[in-house]
Specification:
Layout (H helix, E strand, L loop, with lengths): L1 H5 L4 E3 L5 H4 L6 E3 L3 H10 L5 H12 L1 H19 L8
Parallel strand pairs: 1-2
């Protein structure tokens, strides 16, 4: 799904696994419940902008964005893990 979005290609998928977390229904593709909805979604593809799908990929899944998110997470975890000195006495 993410690779498709990187190419500006909309995705039509069933709401299983990570689909609801990755696909924004009506923005980067369509989340459908059955085959009939999938067929209908094909007819709705012109509603979606390939340029907007690519831009949304950049905002959410680019290498730079993902690396920045990981660094932020790791820094937060490292800050919490630092031993704290206690006064003895």
């Amino acid at each position: 799904m993410i690779e498709a979005m990187a190419c500006g290609t909309p995705v039509i998928a069933f709401p299983a696994g990570s689909v609801p977390e990755v696909i924004e229904d009506g923005r980067t593709g369509f989340i459908v419940r059955d085959e009939a909805e999938a067929v209908a979604a094909v007819g709705r593809l012109p509603e979606l902008s390939r340029t907007a799908i690519r831009a949304r990929f950049e905002e959410r899944f680019s290498v730079e964005r993902m690396a920045a998110d990981y660094l932020s997470l790791y820094r937060g975890l490292a800050a919490k893990a630092r031993p704290r000195l206690r006064a003895v006495g």
